[in-house]
Amino acid sequence: MLSANNGCRWMECKWNGMTTIIMENTIIRLEILADKGTDIVEFLYKPLDIDFMWRSPMPFYKPYLFITTAQGKLGNFLDWYPGGWQEIFPNGGGICEYKGAVLGLHGEVSLIPWRYNILEDTGEELSIKFYTHTYRTPFFIEKTITIEKDSPFVVFDEKVTNNGGEEMDFIWGHHPAFGKPFLSPDCIIRINKAKVLVGQGDGKSFTNLKQTEGVWPLVEGINGENVDISICPDEKDNVSDVIFLSELSEGKYEIYNQKLKIGFRLEFPLDVFRFIWFWRIGGGSFEYPWYGRNYNVALEPFSSLPDLTDAVKRGDSLKLKAGTSITAQIKAGVITC
After folding, report:
1. 262-267 and 195-198: which strand pairing?
2. Residues 13-172, CATH architecture
């Protein structure tokens, strides 16, 4: 049962056996998997009944209730990836080894359960604190999610603490993926200024881009033409790319559907999240893991380029001395202009 009949309210329920927290106000509703990484699998704009989050085509179950037949070469992230929005920590990107610990694709915290406490529940404001310890590394991570009664935005106040007795490197990121009914070729991505590096897509990938550098939003296409990557692809465009944006002029982006006249804005601190990883698939990723099924765009604020081992070598990993902490505030929500 929801905690109230109107205003800000919350409820604990079960989804496929997992503890799930519903947070909502008069405008938005969030569905958060407390038993799996605090994944946000629904970010619903209630006036139009439109969910911004993409749902993975893979069947989804509680991670520790089943195992697949073999260990994936990247780890277990993809086996238990429901789509939506993940916290990524302390590794981002492919599998690596750091200080003797093997860290799979996108690290630890998106696969482990978090606990939670209700900090504020007044009807005018709802604030829930989620927290967990990592297992292969000595970190404690806290995330307080706050909504206000009539606001279309959510505020995330986060803190990472190194509980180890030695300095630790890490990669920290957020992985929101957008899909239908919100996502379409009517969507444009608004980023003020950035340097662009085109990488490789997932699986057996097709692309209309050269693996080259550019300046947002133009990238050289495979036929020598300029491609405007701020325009979202169609689901039948046969493209699959992972693109890295650096030298950002501000910690903000918007993805806006010109036909529906709604969009999603995410604001983040540039001193922590210095890159945006831009993952887009318009049907162009074949073989494992997507088999030509995907239509999604993800715009992911990250502290570093992949992966942790390489980030340490490059010098773009984040560091915490023993017993110290780092904080960050993220704001995300719906825009209608």
Report:
1. unpaired
2. Distorted Sandwich (2.70)
